[in-house]
Amino acid sequence: MKLKALLFLSFSHLVLIAQNDKELLWEEHFNGDSLSSLRWNYETGDGCPDLCGWGNNERQIYNKDYVTVKDGFLMITADKVGDTYYSGKINTRGKAEFRYGTIEIRAKVPEGKGLWPALWMLGSNIAEAGWPGAGEIDIMEYVGRQPDTVHTSLHTPESHGNTVNTKTTVVPDLARDFHTYGVSWNSERITFFIDSREVYTFSPEPKNEDTYPFKHPFYFLINMAVGGNFGGPEVDDSIFPQQFIVDYIKVYR
Fold first, then answer.
1. pLDDT tens track for 13-60
2. Count of other CB atoms within 10 angstroms of residue 195
3. Residue 209 designated active-site
4. Of 94, 79, 82, which is closest to residue 43 (Cα–Cα)?
5. Catalytic: 188?
6. Do 102 and 22 meet the contact criterion of CB atoms below 8 Å apart?
7. Nearest in space to 155 (alpha carbons), one of 115, 210, 100
8. Is 64 within 8 Å of 88 (Cβ atoms)?
9. Is CB count within 10 Å lower at the N or C end of the chain?
């Protein structure tokens, strides 16, 4: 018993040292009463004419009025007004972009069929490389038609944008509380975590621009879609309004 206790204490000490060795590079705690324009951009509309339905047959119109900051939380609200669905979408493009590191995002997903909240990243070279050439890191996707299921995925040119590099993880009573979603990312692999538990690692061979377009800076996106190819064709209109809440984002070197 004494040996086990000693080993446990030694391991705990090493974990603490490892955590303290991480250098906090950037953090967002959504303080104040509005979204910082120095850090975030709004995306508005329905994607038309270039990407109607934002490429996924989504039903919502993004409007900055559906993005609020209060009591240290970012809140994205999805609602139906008349025959129109509204929601919010923001990104850090050109303002906060990162290459490698450990990312942690604490968030609470809503409930309801037809909702599709997501925490994700796109390559900052998307204007030149296009999609999926620039790469996409889906830190967390959730669809209300699949309760208690978290999707973690990557999109690459080799997969032609199809969701083949992916893992689903069941988290009981997912929508009842906040959970921490994260990735550890370097030139060799991307590992996904939920509440500090490793759930998926992506490390293809060989690594080139087709298989691993993740060797350049990426920026954050946070949104909640309604319906769409992934959200599902059926939307339960009785659920609205619903909120997707984000507590913080931390990026460690």
1. 433 334 457 899 999 999 999 999 999 999 999 999 999 999 999 999
2. 12
3. no
4. 94
5. no
6. yes
7. 210
8. yes
9. N
Name the maximum alpha-carbon separation found in the chain.
68
- Rg of the chain (C-alpha set): 19
DSSP state of 36: -
The secondary structure element, H or E, covering residue 18 is: helix 2-21
Q: Of 58, 141, 188, 198, which is the active-site residue?
A: 141
Quick count: other Cβ atoms within 10 Å of Cβ 223? 23
Distance CA 158, CA 123 (A): 16
Instruction: State the residue for tokens 């296009």.
Output: 130
On the CB side of 12, CA atoms within 13 Å amount to: 6
What is the mean pLDDT of the segment spanning 91-104? 98
The stretch 115-120 carries a mean pLDDT of 98
Residue of 58, 136, 205, 234 with catalytic role: 136
SS3 13: helix
Cα–Cα–Cα angle for 251, 175, 118, rounded to 5 degrees: 45
**What is the pTM (predicted TM-score) of this model?**
0.91
